[in-house]
Automatic annotation (TrEMBL):
Keywords: Hydrolase, Protease. The keyword Ribonucleoprotein does not apply. It holds the Pfam family ClpS. It comes from Flavobacterium rivulicola. InterPro entries: ClpS_core, Ribosomal_bL12_C/ClpS-like. Residues 22-83 form the Adaptor protein ClpS core domain. GO terms for biological process: protein catabolic process; proteolysis. This is ATP-dependent Clp protease adaptor ClpS. The keyword Ubl conjugation does not apply. GO terms for molecular function: peptidase activity.
């Protein structure tokens, strides 16, 4: 006769605690796709494909999250986007 043994384990799950903010880029009727793409590559270190996809989303959806992170890291990038004439905010 065999016995079946059940084992219960306690597993600790560590969650990252902290708030991530987002830079949201908004559509406008002023900037060209090329300017938006070039700016995202320069300021947010996007690849050409990422920047193009974001520009398309902004154009068709009206807005797109282009970067996430801590507020202190995003603030200078958002400022550079605004100085380049783009419409963006940190949420």
């Amino acid at each position: 006769m065999s016995t079946i043994e059940k084992v219960q384990e306690d597993v600790l799950v560590e969650e990252q605690v902290g708030t991530n903010n987002e830079i949201v880029l908004y559509n406008d009727d002023v900037n060209t796709f090329d300017h938006v793409i070039d700016t995202l590559i320069r300021v947010c270190q996007h690849t050409a494909e990422q920047a193009e996809q974001c520009a398309i989303l902004v154009h068709y959806k009206g807005k797109c999250t282009v970067k996430t992170g801590h507020y202190d890291e995003l603030r200078p990038q958002c400022t550079q986007l605004l100085e380049a004439g783009l419409s963006a905010e940190i949420i």
